[in-house]
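Recall the central idea of this unit: under ordinary conditions, the amino acid sequence of a chain determines the structure it adopts. In this exercise we apply that idea directly, starting from the sequence alone.
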Amino acid sequence: MTSLLPNRRGVLFALAMALAFAAILLAMGRNPICPCGTVKLWHGAVQSSENSQHIADWYSFSHVIHGLLFYFLAHLLWRRWKLFGGRPAIWALPIEVAFEGFWDLLENSPLIIERYRTVTVSIGYNGDSVVNSLTDIGFMALGFLLASRLPAWASVALAVAFELFTLAMIRDNLTLNVLMLVWPVDAIRVWQGG
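Accordingly, the structure predicted from this sequence is:
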């Protein structure tokens, strides 16, 4: 069976890409850490200027789900469809780091930041700190590695549990986040605002 886990070279390449994305974010003018001057392990206030500025927050669960979904995609490409002749897919994780990194660049662009402010409940959203973006990539990698170890049903159950948990805790999750960015629904925004 084809392994989707990277070898040492693949891991080093993924780390180098994550650092390259950090450098690009810094060049874009993103704050390295929270403007408040601290780096917290967890910040749980969604409607706060410190949201998406620290190591982990409620949206970290969404990034784990990204990893679960990326693993499923990698499984389809390498195992099911025999991409590259079915050779070992040691580059699957680095490719997924690239996808997550590109999303973080897009998410921190003025266009998407303004879109969040305009159509979602995240009125004061200012984008992510570089520390938060790097840990978002790390949480995605965690989801990818979890999916590589769990049976498919457990990965699906974990994704559903995370979606329901964050929905109950903060009235937001990956599904609503994507929906509200692509096709905003006023009733959902009102409900999310409490």
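Residues 106 and 112 are 7 Å apart (CA to CA).
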